[in-house]
Structure formats: C-alpha cells, structure tokens
Amino acid sequence: MKVTRVLVGAAGAALMGVGLSLLMDVRDPTGVLVWLGGAVVLHDMLIAPLVLLVGLVLVRGRARGPVRGALVVAGALTVVALPALLRPGRTANSSVLPLDYPRNWLIALVAVAAVTALVLAARGLTRRRPPS
C-alpha cells in the first residue's frame, strides 16, 4: 500500500511539474488565475455541497462512498466541459472545437455511472460471499 502511495504521489508531482512548465509559456496569466479561482469557488460553493447533500439524502450504507465519488467526478467533468457546452453556434474556424462535446460529455458521464455500478456490484458480491 505504501509503494502505491509513493508512486501515485510521484506521478502527481510530475504532472504538477508539467502543468507548471506549461504555465510558464502563458503570456498573460490573469485569465488562468481567474479560471483557477473560479474553479475553486465553483467546487467549494456548488459541487461539494451538492455531492454531500445528495450522498446524505439519497444513498445509504456502503454505497455512499462510491456514489459521492462518482458525483465528484461527474461534477468535475461538467465544470471542465462547461465552456464547450455553452459555446454558442459554430465558429469561423472549424478546428477550434471540432468534436461533438455534448455527446462526448454524456459518454463520459455514462462511463462514470457504469464504473460506479461495477464497483457497487463488486462490493455486493464480496459482502454476500460466505466466510471461508
């Protein structure tokens, strides 16, 4: 377990380094800082309270953790996709947003729901198995 934590921590530190190096290429960091600040406020004021409330009201027992995790991931996916989802109409440059973002966002949400259902099913199977 400790090796896994060290490896995940090292991967996280490496990714933060990549992000920092990309940030150094930005000419005007004001937009990035506003976006990051907005993401923090959106998470702390909207996503986290909603996830906790839904997890408390709708889900009981051992399913609460995976459902809350799925809601956090779904919320983060929605926040990241929001600018593309709210983009009005087509742009003059077809390469700006060439993908079907609403469809891909829904596919990602279905994948999150499917993984959550598999986790819950696996937990149900391990709980029903008689002790040996």
From TrEMBL:
Transmembrane spans: 33-59, 66-85, 105-126
Keywords from the UniProt entry: Membrane, Transmembrane, Transmembrane helix
Name of this protein: Uncharacterized protein
Species of provenance: Streptomyces phyllanthi
